[in-house]
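for the record, two folds in this file. i put them one after another cuz i was lazy. first one right below, seq on top, C-alpha cells after. the second one comes after a little note so u can tell where it starts
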Amino acid sequence: MATEAIIPEALEEEQGKPKPRTMTAPPSSAYKIVDVPELYGDLIKARGVEGTYISTSEEESPWVPFGDGAAIRHLAFDVRNNSYCNILWIKAPGVIGTHKHKGMVWAVCLEGNFRYLEYDWVCKPGEFITEFPGTAHTLVTDNPEGMKALFWMQGVNEFYDDQGNFVEALDVWWFMNHYESYCREKGIEPNKQLYL
C-alpha cells in the first residue's frame, strides 16, 4: 500500500497552524497609529533615541560656505559612528578638490549634475552613487546651474592639493566645527536635531 508524503505546509494546516505568509505589499493601508507589541518597550523608551526631522528652513540648518562658490547644508552628525550627512551645493560650474575616502559614501543628486574626473559617468537628479574606502575622487560640475547632492559619509575624507600633497582630514568633528563656527559667527543657536 502506497503512502503519501506529508509536506510541512500541509502538516501545519492539518494541525491548525497558519500557513507562512509572504509579504507582497504592506499588510495594512489603515490611516492610523497601530499599537505594535514590543518586548523591550520600557527599555527602548528609557534608553532609545527618537528620530530627527530637519525641514527646508535655513533657520534649522543654514547654508555654510565651503570654499569659493560652494556651500554645505548640514543635516546630521553621528559621533558614535563618525558619520555625517549634508547637502553639497556648488553654485556654478566648479570643482571640489581631490579627496580620498577612508569610509563609505552614499549620494543622491538633487539638482543639476556632477561627476568625478576619475570616472566616465555623470550623476543626474534622482541618481545614486556609492563610493568605497581607499578611492580618491575629484568632484566637478560642468552644469551652468551647478549642482546639489545629498551625501551620507562615514569616516575621514582626506583632501589633497593639485600636487598630491595632503592638506587636511575632514571627519564628523571637522563638519561639526564647520557648522558651529558659522553659527557662532552669525549668532545662530545650533540645532540640537542635527546631533544623533
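(here's the note) second protein begins now
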Amino acid sequence: MEDQRRQGRDGAQLGSGQAAVGEGIAPEMTVFACAACGAGLTGPLKRLPVVPEAPDHAWWEAEEMGPSPATVPSGCYAIETEPYGAPMVVAEAPGPVMPRHGSRFNIDGQPLVSQGPRGNIVVNPDDSRGLTTRHASPACCGATPHGGLNQVCACGTLVATLCSDCCLPYELHLSPDRVLALPSHSPGSDLTA
C-alpha cells in the first residue's frame, strides 16, 4: 500500500498519480499586466535566474533582414540588473552601451553608456500581447532601445522598451514601475484584459 501512496510534505496522503510539492509540479508562473489598466501584457512566464547571453547571430549574412534570435526563451523572463535604455550619457572609456550591446558614440565621438533604469523585466518579444510601437528610435529593420520606452499598452500607457533591429539582441524590457507581476499557478491559466 505504501508504494501506491505517499505522504506529502504537509502530511496529507497523495495518490500514485500526484506528486508532492516541488516534485514534478510546474514552478509558480508570473503574468505581467499594465499597472494603469490591468490589461494582460504576457501569458504565464517562468523566471530565469539571470538574463541569458544573446545568441550569436551573423545578421549581415541573413537571407532576410529581421530580428535576431530572442535572448530570452519563449515562456520565460529574467530581471536585468544593469542600466538599460535611455538616457545615454558620456562615459570615461568605450565599452558596451548597455548589456548585450556593442559600443555607441555621440556625434563628437565620445563613448556613451546607458544610465537608464535597472530592474527591467526582460521577456521574449513574441510572448507579449496587445502592445504597439510608439516613439521608437529607428534603425534599418526594427526598433532600438536608445530612445527609451517605445511600447504602448492599449490604454495608451508606455510600458516597455522593444529592441528588435537586426544587429541588436531581440528583447522586450517591461518597465517594473509600469507593470504588475501577478502570480499564475497554472501554465494554462490566462489573464483576461
